[in-house]
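Dear H.,

Thanks for agreeing to be a second pair of eyes. The structure we're designing against is below in C-alpha cell form, covering all 289 positions.
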C-alpha cells in the first residue's frame, strides 16, 4: 500500500497541530559544507537534507560545530573575521552560500533565533513593524495587521495587546523569545534556524516554545499571503528529550579527528532507537557527551 501524497492545500488546515507530512521533500540541501576559523575547519563536509514542513534537530556535544553550521546557513558567518565557508546550501534552487547572495534578502527567507532572546530595545509594536517597514510594507495599517497576526501566531497577543507601546525588554524571557520568533515569522521565512532557543528559559517557558514550534510547523501566516504555510525549522539543542519531543528528524554532529562532522541523520525515532554509529548510541543513552 502506498502512502497518500499530501497536496499543499491539505496542509492548510487552520488552527490545529498537524503531524509532519508523510512524504517529505527537501527544502534545503547542504552539500559538503565546511566552516573554518583562521583556515582551520571547525566542521567539515556536512551533507544534510532538511525536509520541507518538518522540524530537524541537530544534536551533539559542545564544540562539534552545530552553531557554526547553523550560522553559515543565514550568512552570519560572513560577519566573523577569519571565518570562511565552502560548499553549497541549496534552498529551492538557490545556493545560500554563493558569493552574490544579498544577506538582507537571505535573512528574510532564513530567520534565526538565538539562545539569548534579542528583541530590539524598543516597543513591542516597533519590534514587529520595523522589519516590515524595512521589507517594503508601506501602509501603517498593513503593518499593524501583520504585527497583530504574528503576535497571534506565537500566542502573545492576549498577553501583550494592552501594552504594545511598552518596551519589549520588560517582557519575561519566554515572552521575549516568542517576540523574537514573531519578528522572524512576520516576514514569512521559508526556514527558521534556532540555536538552543530554550537554553536560557525555565521549564514552563520552554514547554510554551516547544508547543509553539510544533504549531508553526503546521502553519503560520505572514507577509505576502493570508494563507497559512508550514514553517520548516532546524533546531540545535543539547536537550535530547527536547529533540525527541519536537523533532521529526535528527542529525548527530560529533568531533572526529579534531574536527566536527555530521555522523548520522534520519527520522528522530530511528536515530534514538536504532542509531547507526557507536558515538550516537553512547550519546543518546547518556553514556557519553
Ligand atoms: N568565532 C570563532 N573563532 C574561532 N573559533 C571558533 C569561533 N566560533 C567557534 N569556534 C570553534 O569552532 C568549533 C565549533 O564551535 P561551535 O560551532 O560553537 O560548536 P557547537 O555549537 O557544537 O558547540 C569549536 O572548536 C569552537 O572553538
Ligand atoms: Mg553552539
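And this is the sequence the design step returned. I haven't edited it by hand at all.
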Amino acid at each position: 500500500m502506498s502512502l497518500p501524497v499530501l497536496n499543499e492545500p491539505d496542509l492548510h488546515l487552520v488552527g490545529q497541530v498537524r503531524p509532519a507530512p508523510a512524504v517529505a521533500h527537501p527544502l534545503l540541501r547542504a552539500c559538503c559544507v565546511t566552516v573554518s576559523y583562521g583556515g582551520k575547519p571547525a566542521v567539515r563536509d556536512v551533507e544534510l537534507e532538511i525536509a520541507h514542513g518538518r522540524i530537524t534537530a541537530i544534536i551533539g556535544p559542545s564544540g562539534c560545530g552545530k552553531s557554526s553550521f547553523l550560522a553559515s546557513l543565514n550568512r552570519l558567518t560572513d560577519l566573523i573575521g577569519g571565518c570562511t565557508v565552502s560548499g553549497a546550501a541549496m534552498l529551492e534552487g538557490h545556493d545560500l552560500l554563493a558569493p552574490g547572495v544579498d544577506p538582507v534578502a537571505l535573512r528574510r527567507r532564513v530567520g534565526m533565533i538565538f539562545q539569548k532572546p534579542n528583541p530590539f530595545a524598543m516597543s513591542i509594536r516597533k519590534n514587529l513593524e520595523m522589519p516590515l517597514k524595512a521589507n517594503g510594507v508601506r501602509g501603517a495599517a498593513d503593518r499593524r495587521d501583520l504585527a497583530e497576526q504574528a503576535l497571534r501566531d506565537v500566542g502573545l497577543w492576549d498577553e501583550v495587546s494592552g501594552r504594545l507601546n511598552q518596551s519589549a525588554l520588560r517582557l519575561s524571557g519566554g515572552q521575549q523569545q516568542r517576540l523574537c520568533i514573531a519578528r522572524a515569522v512576520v516576514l514569512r521565512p521559508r526556514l527558521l534556524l534556532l540555536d538552543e532557543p530554550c537554553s536560557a528559559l525555565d521549564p514552563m517557558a520552554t514547554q510554551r516554545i516547544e508547543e509553539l514550534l510544533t504549531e508553526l510547523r503546521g502553519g503560520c501566516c505572514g507577509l505576502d499571503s493570508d494563507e497559512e504555510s508550514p514553517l520548516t525549522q532546524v533546531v540545535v539543542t543539547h536537550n535530547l528529550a527536547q529533540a525527541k519531543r519536537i523533532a521529526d528528524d535528527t542529525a548527530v554532529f560529533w568531533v572526529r579527528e579534531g574536527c566536527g562532522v555530521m555522523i548520522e541523520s534520519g527520522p528522530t525515532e530511528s536515530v534514538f532507537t536504532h542509531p547507526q554509529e557507536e558515538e550516537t548510541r553512547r550519546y543518546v543513552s547518556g553514556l557519553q557527551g
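Two observations from my side: Residues 66-67 surround magnesium ion (ligand 2) (CB under 6 Å). The chain has one domain: 27-284.

Warmly,
E.
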